[in-house]
Design a protein that fits this description.
Helix content is 83%, strand content 0%. With 275 residues, it is mainly alpha-helical. It has one domain. The longest helix is centred in the first third of the chain and has 36 residues. Keywords: Hydrolase, Membrane, Protease, Transmembrane, Transmembrane helix. This is CAAX amino terminal protease self-immunity. One of its GO terms (biological process) is proteolysis. InterPro entries: Rce1/LyrA-like_dom.
């Protein structure tokens, strides 16, 4: 049994690590093809290739090669409405903490999300924007990380599985600023999946976080455009002192709201048997 667990852990970890060069070399290959074939991919095409080609396709290939049971590996178990509401409540309550950690990272590393939002806002409709930045990542990233990768750590201590999963999730983002809060989210998502015994717990939370962040950035960007400003310029002109004050406030508020999130999490775990 121990050898089987070790083999499953190695297989899952290898899959996660393999996703990184797939992203890197896949992007390089597409850029080279674009150069020699004389075409340039727009941001929407790049996102679609990244999500479907570098995430969903490896998931499909993994199951074709390993023959692992899809439903059991991914924990494709339906959730009750009360549990969905619990997950959404937890997600809402941890948002200030996540935003604070994201802001903390932006003090030391560039935040590419602002420029990305400004560029994609002018390219697609808002519903399609949510599909690209919230729905597809929530599905495909969760299938990879809280599905295949986490399945290899069943039987391990949960906090160890959560730490490793969070670390691999952070590395997958290939961006230090995003990687900081991706680690925390990856850690939390593991506990949600374990408590609900369903990957739909992390998919729901992941979608809610991405959708709310993109909605906020979209509305802010639109309002600033009407005022003749841009989100990037406003961020650049903000004083470091005001940014630090906002981060501290978010971290303090997030620490308080996370206590309530933990209480709801215990209720979620109590209502479900964990495999």
């Amino acid at each position: 049994m121990s050898k089987l667990n070790t083999s499953a852990t190695f297989k899952a970890t290898f899959f996660a690590i393999l996703l990184v060069p797939i992203h890197i070399f896949g992007s390089i290959l597409i850029a080279l093809l674009g150069h020699y074939l004389n075409f340039n991919l727009d941001i929407v095409s790049s996102l679609l290739i990244s999500q479907f080609g570098f995430l969903l396709l490896p998931v499909i290939v993994y199951f074709l090669i390993t023959k692992d049971p899809v439903r059991k590996t991914l924990r494709l178990e339906l959730m009750s409405l009360p549990d969905i509401l619990r997950v959404l409540a937890i997600t809402f309550l941890i948002q200030p903490l996540i935003m604070g950690i994201s802001g903390l990272g932006s003090l030391f590393f560039p935040n590419y999300l602002v420029n990305f939002t400004a560029e994609i806002n002018s390219s697609v409709s808002f519903p399609f924007l949510l599909m690209l930045t919230a729905l597809f990542p929530a599905l495909f990233e969760e299938f990879c990380m809280r599905g295949i990768v986490l399945s290899g750590y069943r039987g391990k201590k949960l906090w160890i599985a959560a730490c490793i999963n969070g670390l691999l999730f952070a590395v997958l983002h290939l961006n230090i600023q995003q990687g900081l809060y991706a680690f925390v989210l990856g850690f939390i998502f593991v506990y949600l999946v374990d408590a609900a015994n369903s990957i739909f717990a992390s998919i729901t939370s992941h979608f809610a976080i991405n959708a709310s962040q993109m909605t906020l950035l979209h509305l802010t960007s639109k309002n600033l455009e009407e005022a003749g400003q841009s989100l990037a310029n406003v961020q650049a002109n903000s004083s470091k002192e005001s940014l630090i004050a906002s981060i501290v406030l978010l971290l303090v508020l997030g620490s308080i709201t996370s206590i309530f999130a933990y209480r709801i999490y215990k209720g979620l775990k109590k209502n479900n048997s964990v495999i």
